[in-house]
Specification:
Blueprint (H helix, E strand, L loop, with lengths): L1 E9 L2 H10 L4 E9 L2 E7 L6 E6 H7 L9 E6 L2 H10 L3 E2 L3 E3 L2 E7 L5 E6 L1
Parallel strand pairs: 1-4, 5-9
Antiparallel strand pairs: 1-5, 2-3, 3-4, 6-8, 7-8, 8-9
């Protein structure tokens, strides 16, 4: 498993995307519609494997009201999410619902201090 994405929550995705591109020098690596009023935006550097997802803060608060959106979140990538889910659960890690969505297979887990992370199958 590897760190693949860091999620940054934004009040205005386009404004934040433009800032990271125009001011910081990153490039848009993905920009896809996820559904009505939902856009998945990733920015990063061409020579790095890690990207930053700019996610709509209000949308995340509606989807998961208990998830804090004031700080970035780290997303891990793996080739077999079901196997990683089983491995972490067997190790006593607090894991949450396994989700198979049209845009990806994933689950969340918490560390010993209650920080939440996502594992997504790529």
């Amino acid at each position: 498993m590897k760190i693949a994405k860091i999620t940054m929550y934004a009040n205005d995705q386009q404004l934040v995307k433009n800032w990271w591109v125009e001011k910081f020098g990153l490039e848009v690596t993905a920009e896809n519609q996820m559904g009505p009023n939902m856009t998945w935006i990733e920015v990063g550097a061409a020579d790095q494997g890690v990207v930053m997802v700019i996610y709509d803060r209000k949308l995340m608060q509606q989807q998961n009201p208990n998830l804090p959106t004031t700080a970035p979140h780290i997303m891990f990538s793996c080739s077999d999410a079901k196997a990683e889910y089983a491995r972490l659960e067997a190790n006593g890690v607090e894991v949450f619902e396994f989700m198979e969505m049209p845009y990806g297979t994933m689950f969340q887990f918490k560390d010993l201090e209650g920080n939440s992370f996502v594992v997504r199958q790529d």
